[in-house]
Design brief:
77% of the residues lie in helices and 0% in strands. It is mainly alpha-helical. The relative contact order is 0.11.
Length: 353
């Protein structure tokens, strides 16, 4: 059971997230940069940036990238891996707003079936891609639309509920997505699968920042500046071995996320309307913050379906983003850390990487 959980819920989801980064996410950043530069001056180079970003964010390209990422993470044979390009493209387009979840499920099944026939015949170059593509295409026709509708409905429900109950949903989403970020699963893939944008996306960003910046500051005594960089800009997942040894070390970051989440939704109205994958990234490469900024100027298609529109950010938007992403996670987690060390719940060396 542990083998399959790791293969499908950890490896495959991580591979899907990497595919999203290498297509939709970086494409959105490039396109938004080009669009903002074009406002200053009409220049062929700036237009090229927009065109390049459009190529990378095309639904067919994004689906193919996700499927290849999944296949690569599952160590699929070469012919299976290359065949997943067609499978992912079809599943993502057919799945619509919930395409990422459709790609995840369909690509996993197609890859496993392709593995079963790979190198089993003398005409492997025909059999393996044919079986992989046909299985993927059949599943796409039969299920992708409905998987997409289900995933999109969950996402819309979360976005809608967060608008109605920003305080409680701010806490819930911030804590849950933040925990997912630190666990060895992909919070980014989860947010992408359900199209988490708007206030719900903002709460997710807050929760992820609380974990990453929080652990970076909390463990500064043990890990110094290397820990700041590896956890604050890398991943808080590095702390999982220490959390397993002493679960109390997780409490400062979780409590911090329970505070910053509702502050993001209720006080600062922080919305993440860029690519939904950014909601689950926090400060990793500053992807969460870049997602918020690109969403201000050029909301993603998913965010637009949730009612988002482009805005010109003012002081409160920038102030809220900086406070929720960096200042509050650092200050709150440090404070909780001092308290927990004083009462003996966290001891010197408990957070050593």
């Amino acid at each position: 059971m542990n083998k399959y959980v790791k293969r499908y819920c950890i490896d495959a989801m991580s591979g899907m997230a990497q595919g999203l980064f290498a297509s939709l996410l970086i494409g959105t950043i490039i396109k938004t940069l080009g669009q903002q530069l074009l406002r200053l001056s009409v220049n062929p180079v700036f237009q090229f940036l927009v065109d390049a970003g459009n190529f990378a964010t095309d639904a067919h390209v994004v689906g193919a990238a996700m499927a290849v990422g999944i296949g690569f993470a599952m160590n699929a044979p070469a012919l299976v891996l290359f065949s997943l390009v067609a499978v992912g493209s079809a599943a993502n387009v057919t799945g619509g707003a919930g395409g990422p979840l459709a790609v995840l499920i369909i690509a996993i099944v197609a890859a496993e079936v392709g593995n079963l026939v790979s190198k089993k015949t003398k005409v492997d170059i025909i059999v393996t891609p044919a079986v992989t593509i046909l299985v993927g295409a059949l599943l796409t026709v039969l299920t992708a639309k409905y998987i997409g509708i289900a995933a999109s409905s969950v996402g819309k429900f979360l976005v809608w509920t967060t608008k109605l109950h920003p305080f409680w949903m701010g806490i819930l989403i911030s804590v849950v997505v933040g925990i997912a970020l630190t666990l060895p699963i992909s919070s980014a893939a989860i947010c992408a699968a359900f199209g988490l944008t708007g206030l719900a996306g903002g709460a997710a960003v807050a929760g992820c920042c609380a974990q990453m910046v929080g652990f970076a500051v909390l463990s500064f005594k043990e890990n110094r500046w290397g820990g700041i960089l590896s956890q604050g800009l890398g991943t808080s997942m590095l702390q999982m071995p220490n959390i397993i040894k002493n679960p109390k070390t997780w409490l400062p970051a979780i409590l911090t996320s329970a505070i910053t989440g509702p502050l993001a939704t209720c006080l600062f109205k922080l919305e993440m309307n860029g690519a939904a994958v950014s909601s689950g990234m926090g400060t990793c490469g500053l992807v969460g913050q870049i997602g918020v900024i690109t969403g201000w100027f050029d909301p993603s298609a998913t965010a637009i379906t949730h009612g988002a529109t482009a805005i010109t950010p003012g002081f409160m938007e920038w102030f809220g983003l900086i406070l929720i992403s960096f200042v509050l996670p650092a200050a709150l987690c440090y404070g909780f850390g001092v308290l927990f060390r004083k009462i003996g719940w966290i001891k010197d060396g408990d957070l050593q990487l």
